[in-house]
C-alpha cells in the first residue's frame, strides 16, 4: 500500500534538497514521486505510468526491475553486501575488472573503481597528473578541456568543466585549464568541416606551444552530452588522439555518458578506433542499477605507479564503497545481457527506426537541428529557423516541452533549448514509436501551440 501522496510531498518539501534544481520553483509545483519501475516505464505513487525517456539521466540500459539483474543482486546479497577494496579484494570486483578489460579498447588493462562519473573523472585527472610526477617530469601540470564540457560536479571535474552557468561561480576554487572549441557544426559558419578544422587547429597550436606544461586532454568522445548532445564530425576524435600522442600529452576519454552501447558501439571511442590512455565509465555500467564507476588505465600509466614502497609512488586515492560487490555483481549481469540480447546490434537498428520517426520533425518551423548518435538524441529548438536565433533562456522552452511530455506520459529533462531523448537501450520499436510520438507532440505544442507563457 502506498504512502499518501500528500504526506510524501510535504516531507519532500520539508527535507529534500534536489540536485540541479531551483527549489523555489520546485516547491511551487506538485512533485513527481516515483514508486516503482517496470521495463521502460516508471510509476508514481498515484499509479500514473511514464516512459523513461531519458533513462533516468542517461543510465538505464535494460529497463527497470529486470529479473536477471534483480537475481544477480539477490545472489550477491546473500554472500556479502560490501567489503572494502583497500588492500583486499572481492569476487565480483575481480570478475568485472576482467570483463571490462575484455570489452574496452585494446591496451586498457587496469581498472580502478569508484562510485560516480565525477569521482571517476577526478581519478583520471589525478592519475594523469601523478603519472608525470612519478617519472620526474615536473612541468606537465595543466589540462586541456573543451568548450561547454561537462565532466561532473566535484571540484576537479568542475575545473575541467566549461559550462559557465554551472561552473563560473566556482572559478576561484578551480585549477586553470586550457579550453579548445568542441566542434558544433550547427553553430559554426564552416559547418562540420569548418568546425572540425577549428578544433584541430586550436589543439595543434596549443600543443605546439605548450605541450611541455600539459598533462592531459579530457574529452567527451563523439557526443558532448550536457552541452546539448552535440555530435563530433567524423574523424575528429581520432585526429585529436593522434595529436596528443605526437605531443606526449595523455588522452582521457570520459565515456560516462557515451559508454555501454549508447552510441551503437560499446564505447564511443570504438567508433573511431581510438585507445585512450585513461577512460572513465559510469552511468550505464550497472545497467542503471547502482552507483559504480571505473577509470581504466593502460599498463604504461600503471607502471609509473608501480615501485618500491619507499619511493612513495602509490596512488593515494580511494572511496569507502570502491569496488562494491553488489554494484559489481549487477554490472557483470548487465554485461552478460549485452551479449545474450545482442544489445549493440539492437541499438543500431533502433537508432535507424528513431531517426526515421523523428525525420518529419525537422520540417517544423522551430526545430533547428535533430542530432543523433545511436540512442542519444538532442533536438535543438530555435526561435528563428533561418537565422538560427535561439530562444531566450528565460523562455524556458526546453523545460516547457519536457513538462508537456510528462503530461503526455514521458519523462525527460532538457538541456537549455535542447530536448533530450535517451531511451533505455532495451526499448522496443513499439515503445519507441509511442515515445517519439509524445516527443513530437510536446515540441509542436510548445513551439507552435502557444498556449503557455
Ligand atoms: N561525465 C559525463 C560526460 C557526464 O555526462 C556525466 C554526467 O552526466 C558525468 C561525467 C558525471 O557523472 P556522475 O553524475 O555520475 O557524477
UniProtKB/TrEMBL annotation:
Superkingdom of the organism of origin: Bacteria
Residues of the site described as Participates in the substrate recognition with KAPA and in a stacking interaction with the adenine ring of SAM: 20
Family, similarity comment: Belongs to the class-III pyridoxal-phosphate-dependent aminotransferase family. BioA subfamily.
Catalytic activity, EC: 2.6.1.62
Positions with a binding annotation for pyridoxal 5'-phosphate: 117-118, 254, 319-320
Enzymatic reactions: (8S)-8-amino-7-oxononanoate + S-adenosyl-L-methionine = S-adenosyl-4-methylsulfanyl-2-oxobutanoate + (7R,8S)-7,8-diammoniononanoate
Gene3D superfamilies hit by this protein: Aspartate Aminotransferase, domain 1 (3.90.1150.10), Type I PLP-dependent aspartate aminotransferase-like (Major domain) (3.40.640.10)
Phylogenetic classification of the source organism: Bacteria, Bacillati, Bacillota, Bacilli, Bacillales
UniProt pathway: Cofactor biosynthesis; biotin biosynthesis; 7,8-diaminononanoate from 8-amino-7-oxononanoate (SAM route): step 1/1
Positions carrying N6-(pyridoxal phosphate)lysine: 283
GO molecular function list: adenosylmethionine-8-amino-7-oxononanoate transaminase activity
Main location: cytoplasm
Oligomer and partners: Homodimer.
InterPro entries: Aminotrans_3, Aminotrans_3_PPA_site, BioA, PyrdxlP-dep_Trfase, PyrdxlP-dep_Trfase_major, PyrdxlP-dep_Trfase_small
Function in brief: Catalyzes the transfer of the alpha-amino group from S-adenosyl-L-methionine (SAM) to 7-keto-8-aminopelargonic acid (KAPA) to form 7,8-diaminopelargonic acid (DAPA). It is the only aminotransferase known to utilize SAM as an amino donor.
Record's keyword terms, sorted: Aminotransferase, Biotin biosynthesis, Cytoplasm, Pyridoxal phosphate, S-adenosyl-L-methionine, Transferase
Protein name: Adenosylmethionine-8-amino-7-oxononanoate aminotransferase
Pfam entry (one): Aminotran_3
Amino acid at each position: 500500500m502506498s504512502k499518501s501522496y500528500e504526506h510524501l510531498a510535504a516531507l519532500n518539501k520539508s527535507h529534500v534538497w534536489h540536485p540541479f534544481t531551483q527549489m523555489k520553483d520546485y516547491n511551487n509545483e506538485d512533485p513527481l514521486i516515483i514508486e516503482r519501475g517496470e521495463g521502460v516505464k516508471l510509476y508514481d505513487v498515484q499509479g500514473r505510468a511514464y516512459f523513461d525517456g531519458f533513462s533516468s539521466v542517461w543510465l538505464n540500459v535494460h529497463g527497470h526491475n529486470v529479473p536477471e539483474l534483480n537475481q544477480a543482486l539477490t545472489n550477491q546479497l546473500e554472500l556479502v553486501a560490501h567489503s572494502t577494496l583497500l588492500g583486499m579484494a572481492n569476487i565480483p570486483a575481480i570478475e568485472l575488472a576482467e570483463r571490462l578489460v575484455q570489452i574496452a579498447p585494446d591496451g586498457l588493462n587496469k581498472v580502478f573503481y569508484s562510485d560516480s562519473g565525477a569521482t571517476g573523472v577526478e581519478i583520471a585527472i589525478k592519475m594523469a597528473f601523478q603519472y608525470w610526477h612519478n617519472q620526474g617530469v615536473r612541468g606537465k601540470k595543466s589540462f586541456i578541456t573543451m568548450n561547454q564540457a561537462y565532466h561532473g560536479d566535484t571540484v576537479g571535474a568542475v575545473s575541467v568543466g566549461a559550462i559557465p552557468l554551472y561552473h563560473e561561480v566556482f572559478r576561484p576554487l578551480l585549477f586553470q585549464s586550457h579550453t579548445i572549441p568542441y566542434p558544433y557544426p550547427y553553430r559554426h559558419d564552416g559547418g562540420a568541416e569548418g568546425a572540425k578544422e577549428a578544433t584541430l587547429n586550436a589543439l595543434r597550436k596549443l600543443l605546439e606551444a605548450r605541450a611541455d606544461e600539459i598533462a592531459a586532454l579530457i574529452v567527451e568522445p563523439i557526443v558532448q552530452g550536457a552541452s546539448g548532445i552535440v555530435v563530433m564530425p567524423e574523424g575528429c576524435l581520432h585526429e585529436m588522439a593522434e595529436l596528443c600522442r605526437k605531443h606526449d600529452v595523455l588522452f582521457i576519454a570520459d565515456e560516462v555518458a557515451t559508454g555501454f552501447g549508447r552510441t551503437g558501439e560499446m564505447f564511443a571511442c570504438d567508433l573511431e578506433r581510438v585507445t585512450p590512455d585513461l577512460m572513465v565509465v559510469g552511468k550505464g555500467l550497472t545497467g542503471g542499477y547502482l552507483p559504480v564507476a571505473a577509470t581504466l588505465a593502460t599498463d604504461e600509466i600503471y607502471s609509473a605507479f608501480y615501485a618500491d614502497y619507499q619511493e612513495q609512488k602509490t596512488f593515494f586515492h580511494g572511496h569507502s564503497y570502491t569496488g562494491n560487490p553488489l554494484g559489481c555483481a549487477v554490472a557483470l549481469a548487465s554485461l552478460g545481457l549485452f551479449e545474450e540480447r545482442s544489445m549493440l546490434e539492437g541499438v543500431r537498428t533502433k537508432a535507424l527506426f528513431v531517426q526515421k520517426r523523428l525525420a518529419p520533425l525537422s520540417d517544423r518551423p522551430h526545430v533547428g537541428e535533430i542530432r543523433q548518435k545511436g540512442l542519444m538524441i538532442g533536438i535543438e529548438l530555435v526561435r528563428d529557423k533561418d537565422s538560427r536565433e535561439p530562444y531566450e533562456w528565460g523562455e524556458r522552452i526546453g523545460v516547457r516541452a519536457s513538462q508537456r511530455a510528462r503530461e503526455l506520459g514521458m519523462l525527460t529533462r532538457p538541456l537549455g533549448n535542447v530536448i533530450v531523448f535517451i531511451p533505455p537501450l532495451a526499448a522496443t520499436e513499439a515503445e519507441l514509436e509511442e515515445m517519439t510520438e509524445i516527443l513530437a507532440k510536446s515540441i509542436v505544442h510548445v513551439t507552435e501551440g502557444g498556449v503557455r507563457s
